[in-house]
Amino acid sequence: MLHIPSTSGLRAFEAACRYLSFNQAAEELGVTPGAVSRQIQTLEQYLGKTLFHRHHKRIELTAVGRQYLAEISLPLEKIAAASARLRSETRRNAVSICAYPTFALRWLIPRWADLYEHHPDIDVQLITSLNPADFERDDFDISIQVLPDGTNLTGMRIDKLLEVVTYPVCSPELAKKYSRPEDLHDAVFVHESPRPTDWPRWLAEAGVSNINSSPGLHFESANMALHAAENGLGVAIGIDALVQESIAAGRLVKLFDVDRRSNHSFHIVSSSRKSTRPKLATVREWMLEAAGQPV
């Protein structure tokens, strides 16, 4: 017999980890913040461990919470992918997309309404994962991947979507402290696990060699790191395409006039065998147009 906690508690925990906010997790799940808090408390009671530190206006994962998230993320992703695959068998109009969580939340979803406005006949199924899609196992139609420019993969069509241009970002209030890169010597550096070299590489680009960026706050995802920066906890490295909306809304400020342009970009990857299917081609072309790329 399998002994597993409530799925509602796991969903609440995973959403709260992504946002570092019970309020935003509740908004995504369509419940109240109190319900999210109770579900996570029930999960903590089941496990006999504290998963979050509760502060006045923010929450923070405990070391146990970070370990638990790392261990359950892949199984949850597999459950989501398997469920999506079964559902897709009865939804012939669906186009399935596998994307990085931060890319989905900060670039794809904000543009989703435009896709449906122009193509209401196309159903899109979105699965998020930090790992590249396995087309043989998961049968996705499209995967968004960061790849070296000019990459060729056998049996795959690859279209460059967005360049990866990085620079420091922080809250408007915190930005008042920094006028030049050298001022970061006393900054709280915000790091994300999937991109551990962003800070050293940007500091090298800025010509700053006497600052140790290793200490600071470390998060499991870029979205969590950016939420921390938005809430004034420190300075994060943002990818331009994924922080433009937050900058325009005044939640983040770009620091300095130094950009680091990577030779690894966001690409649309699809099976050559499927790539000419009309609905898949339509979604791919819509994404390229939204990114300002030639179709």
Automatic annotation (TrEMBL):
Residues annotated as domain HTH lysR-type: 5-62
InterPro entries named in the record: LysR-type_TF_proteobact-type, LysR_HTH_N, LysR_subst-bd, WH-like_DNA-bd_sf, WH_DNA-bd_sf
UniProt KW keywords: DNA-binding, Transcription, Transcription regulation
GO BP term (any one): DNA-templated transcription
CDD domains to which the protein is assigned, alphabetical: PBP2_GcdR_TrpI_HvrB_AmpR_like
SUPFAM superfamilies noted in UniProt: Periplasmic binding protein-like II, Winged helix' DNA-binding domain
GO molecular function, one term: DNA-binding transcription factor activity
One Pfam match: HTH_1
Similarity comment: Belongs to the LysR transcriptional regulatory family.
Descriptive protein name: LysR family transcriptional regulator
Organism name: Sneathiella litorea
